[in-house]
């Protein structure tokens, strides 16, 4: 009787709690048109199966074979599975109370298995032990590794997980400790890494996350923390990520009253790096970034993930770098730019991302350029100056063709 590994996978919101695997007996379900069921006779081999539990037609193809040990009256059949290569038992004698199940079955699909169920490894080590009542698992189910080390131990009532659930690593260290009630998680669930450090701790009530959820990195640092109510995050969700061997903290503030959430990211020093506001998973309202020294870096306004409104950019020393407005994610209106020391660098009137009229200055304060454009094309008079303040050029544009006067730095007209 081949066995199948099964896992609990509980997905709730952003939380995925994976409880380790446990084993159940199975025999493959096959079409009666492909394989002929042999007559029922005590002591006879009635079927063969490959390593995946799929029925095959001969001993040479098989990993397991099945014997009918005894027929007890109507619909009481005692069968047993063996390893083909060694003839070692793979399952203890098992009682079935429906003839349709004795050739091919999967435990979760049948209701007519009764009594103790024991499964073995080929080396003679017990692999699984449980008890069925009216086709349902009842009481403690225990599994072992082929080494003899206990693998799992959990309790059933009327075919549902109920009570303690534990799972161990092959070296004997505890991997999972959980509690079930009527088939649902209830109480504290703890998972550990193989090095013994705690991996996660979750609190359940009636199958739903209720209370603190905490996760850790394998090295022991905290990875995640949030409070849940009825499997929904309540309040702050904190997440730590590793970047360049440093832990970076990120937080999301959930506000059910306004449906507006706040995302915050911190520098390794603990100082705030980013704060963004969301509504319906879209950026909404003020978004702010900081330098690690605490000075602001950027302030932007968003509407439905689109930049709309005032925008300000700063240098690390706190002086403004640029200031203007966005409309539908495009620069509009007057934009000002400054050098790091606070002196003006450029002022431009902008329409649909395109400069209309601009003035620029050198770092020493002397004017560098002035001119006007329409849709990126220069029009009218454009002037430029040398850094010493002397005029450099004066060009009149018509149909994008310039007519220019040009001077050298000494002020002499050269063209």
TrEMBL record:
Pfam families registered for this protein in UniProt: MORN_2
What Gene3D superfamilies does the database record attribute to this sequence?
A: Histone H3 K4-specific methyltransferase SET7/9 N-terminal domain (2.20.110.10)
Superkingdom in the source lineage: Bacteria
Q: Which InterPro entries match?
A: MORN_2
Q: What is this protein called?
A: Toxin-antitoxin system YwqK family antitoxin
Q: Which organism is it from?
A: Entomomonas moraniae
